[in-house]
Design a protein that fits this description.
Order of helices and strands: HHHHEEHHE
Number of strands: 3
Helix content: 55-70%
Distance between the termini: 19 Å
Radius of gyration: 18 Å
Strand content: 5-15%
Amino acid sequence: MSRWTYYCPLWVGALLALPLHQTIAESWPGLPPKMYWPYVCAVSIVAGGICQLMLIGAQGAFAQVLPAPGGRSIRGRGAAVAGALLMLGLTVAVAAVLLASEAFGAGAWIVGALAGTLLIASVVTYAWCWPAAVRDFADER
């Protein structure tokens, strides 16, 4: 897998959000005209980032491998748990944003708190497993 393939969800997610520019801009009432495209671009980049994080979560949950700094990988159950928590947390966070956009204030806060808890649990699991990460391609170096 090359870098272009690995980072493709970031670009695809951002590009798929751009055609929705009018809907995105309407989500912020009273948006000044000069802030139209910067706001739409920022939301598109966030959408691409969510797609990229979902790919990393799927890699952890299904392939049971998560990348770690220094050319290492977290493998096994820790990667599966962290990846599943990441995907679940992102999905619940998107649901919280949708609830907030429909003016369900208390529900959005509750679901958002659940999403934050899941995402924090994912980071804690990743950090817990980080010291046990194995070096990739150790024989080739």
